[in-house]
Design goal:
Largest sheet: 2 strands, parallel
Helix content: 55-70%
Number of domains: 1
CATH topology: Rossmann fold
Distance between the termini: 29 Å
CATH architecture: 3-Layer(aba) Sandwich
CATH class: Alpha Beta
Number of strands: 4
Structural class: mainly alpha
Order of helices and strands: HEHHEHEHHEHH
Strand content: 5-15%
Number of helices: 8
């Protein structure tokens, strides 16, 4: 969370003239409530079940750019669907950078803890190997601007990803 998936994804989709989808936004649209409410009512397990369904549906679409929630990678079925149905880009950032980007955002249920930076480090330790295993491309985000990252991503994508469906 906080790596820039939605922000970069929107810019990339615009530059490639493709539709953009965010799996978290799709879940919110289908349920009519925000993600934190789903976490409160159904817990993380309930949310993750909804996420698997959303990613299955979205990865069947052609010619799109998809941003998933940060924890989507935890599910083996999500990893398989993402890998087999698309080109996966991991926007890599260190936990300290993620903390700087998310520290004022109250809409992130997993960061509602006494020590959000420690939580980010814990999540990173679990998720980073899964992202790397799944990704076709790892893009270091660091302190670059959105425009710079989008340009670097465009230059790194294979030609078949750049074509409109």
């Amino acid at each position: 969370m906080g790596a820039g998936k939605t922000t970069i994804g929107k810019q990339l989709a615009r530059r490639l003239d493709k539709a953009f989808y965010d799996s978290d936004h799709e879940i919110e649209a289908r349920t009519g409530v925000r993600i934190p409410v789903i976490f409160e009512i159904e817990g993380e397990a309930g949310f993750r079940a909804r996420e698997v369904e959303a990613i299955d549906r979205l990865t069947q679409l052609d010619g799109i750019v998809l941003a998933t929630g940060g924890g989507a990678i935890l599910d083996a079925l999500n990893r398989e669907r993402l890998r087999s149905r698309g080109y996966v880009v991991y926007l890599h950032a260190q936990p300290e950078d993620l903390w700087q980007r998310t520290r004022h955002d109250k809409s992130r249920p997993l960061l509602r803890t006494a020590d959000p930076l420690a939580k980010l480090k814990e999540l990173y330790a679990i998720r980073d190997p899964l992202y790397r295993e799944t990704a076709d491309l790892v893009l270091e985000t660091g302190q670059q601007s959105v425009a710079s990252l989008t340009k670097e991503l465009l230059l790194s994508l294979p030609e078949e990803c750049k074509r409109s469906a």
